[in-house]
Amino acid sequence: MKRIITGIKPTGTPHVGNYLGAIKPALKLAAEEEHQSMYFIADLHALNSIHNRSKLKSLTYEVAAAWLALGLDPERSLFYRQSDIKELPELHWILSSVTGKGLMNRAHAYKAQVEQNNREGRDRDDGVNMGLFNYPILMAADILLFNGSEVPVGKDNRQHLEMAKDIGESFNRLYGSTFDLPTPVFAEGSEIIPGLDGRKMSKSYGNTIPLFTEEKSLHKLVKRIVTDSLPPEAPKDREGSPLFTLFREFATPIETEQMAHAFQKGIGYGEIKEELFLVMNRVIAGPRVKYRHLLENTDEIDKCLKDGGSKVRKEAAEHMDRIRERVGL
Ligand code: ADP
Ligand code: TRP
Questions:
Q1: How many other C-beta atoms lie within 10 A of the C-beta of residue 236?
Q2: Residue 83 · residue 60 · CB < 8 Å
Q3: Residue with CA nearest ligand 1 atom 14
Q4: How large is the average pLDDT for residues 178-200?
Q5: Domain identity same for 172 and 234
Q6: Is residue 150 part of a domain?
Q7: CA 241 → CA 139, 198, 225, 263, distances in Å?
Q8: CB of residue 18 inside a 6 A radius of ligand 2
Q9: From the CB of 21, is ligand 1 less than 6 Å away?
Q10: At what angle do helices 298-327 and 53-69 cross, to 10 degrees?
Q11: Could you tell me the residue range of the domain that residue 319 belongs to?
Q12: pLDDT value for 188
């Protein structure tokens, strides 16, 4: 059985881009019979950017509640908190002892920060903590501890995956074959979901539609999506239209075909937005209720993550014992 593993950073309130770009495809994969999936909340990874206790706690709940509300089945998938697997920081340390600093110098999140510092005339390492610098090593530990996994990630994580492979290989060369090396899985043709201003929807741009915002506010936000100023009767281009891209993601194929036709014939933006709101709300309404319920009953989330953690910890401990032995501890 193929094992799929991926981490979800609790660094922002889940938005429509996260849902369509990451959550929906991952849940589809998890539902396939021949897979065993491990999805974890990467709270240790989030620590390098979130230095506020209650913020980290509430984002962890929001993100976990979103996955559960959207259909993650904790009976089928292993769903846990990274920080509950105490072996991970231990493996991180062992792996960092076989990882060249030069490799980490090339990691893109770190490099981007250094380049920005250079451009803006600051010290090259300004604002860089060791959590950010070591990020790819912890990610390698997440994957290697559970051996031979397929790892679905966005293209932005391609380099991290290559590094996890390199790190696993270095270890295997030094100590004998210990880790299976991961295979990255990139969602094919995955769309960049546009935000309110037409750029990529991202919390960094402040242009998101929070996935579980109340119905009224969803309606308001949809009305704010930018459009050009063509009159209703003018034929409209679907290519690059944020409204059409979003509509297609939430509507049925028949509805999408009808909308494509309406674009060609001419339809007012106000009307498109009403239709878009309806199809979005149809998908989100049920999960929204579940999400709210979970956030009001966070003990249910805790229980679920704790159970998931205890299921994987046994395997983690066994593998960690072998690793300790391999290195002579
Ligand atoms: P943000 O850009 O808001 O900070 P993250 O970087 O935390 O979002 O992304 C979490 C996951 O959601 C990643 O797998 C990322 O590829 C996906 N994702 C985020 N924004 C989009 C988007 N606009 N379109 C498609 N996928 C997205
Ligand atoms: N780096 C991933 C992200 O940017 C999160 C992550 C942490 C991860 N550990 C992982 C993904 C292990 C896949 C496998 O969202």
A1: 21
A2: no
A3: 22
A4: 85
A5: no
A6: yes
A7: 36, 8, 10, 10
A8: no
A9: yes
A10: 100
A11: 2-193+298-327
A12: 62
Look at ligand 1, atom 20, and give the residue with the nearest C-alpha. 17
Which ligand does the CA of 164 lie closest to? 2
Q: Is 18 in the pocket of ligand 1 (CB under 6 A)?
A: yes
pTM given for the model: 0.94
Nearest CA owner, ligand 1 atom 2: 202
Please give the span between the terminal C-alpha atoms of the chain, in angstroms, as a whole number. Answer: 32
CATH of the domain at 116: 3.40.50.620
Ligand nearest to the CA of 39: 2
Of residues 320 and 155, which shows the higher confidence score?
Answer: 320
Each residue of 214-241: pLDDT tens digit?
Answer: 999 999 999 999 999 999 999 999 998 9
Per-residue model confidence (pLDDT) at position 190? 64
pLDDT of 189 higher than 70: no
Number of domains in the chain: 2
Q: Is 17 in the pocket of ligand 2 (CB under 6 A)?
A: no
Task: Tell me, using a 6 A CB cutoff, whether residue 202 lines ligand 1.
Answer: yes
pLDDT of residue 327: 98
Q: What is the pLDDT of residues 194-218, one digit of tens each?
A: 999 999 999 999 999 999 999 999 9
Q: Is the CB of 193 under 6 A from ligand 1?
A: yes
We report the CATH number of the domain holding residue 266 as 1.10.240.10
Euclidean distance between CA atoms 310 and 78, whole angstroms: 10
Same domain (yes/no): 219, 242: yes
Q: What percent of the chain has pLDDT over 70?
A: 98
Give the per-residue pLDDT at 186: 76
Residues 70-92 have a mean pLDDT of: 97
Shortest-distance atom of ligand 2 to CA 138: 9
| Count of Cβ atoms closer than 10 Å to residue 28 Cβ | 11
How far, in Å, is the centroid of ligand 1 from the Cα of 202? Answer: 6
Give one DSSP letter per residue of 191-242, joined into a string: PPPB-TTSSBP-GGGT---BTT--HHHHHHHHHHS------TTS----TT-H
Alpha-carbon distance 311 to 304, whole Å? 11
- In this structure, is residue 206 part of a structural domain? no
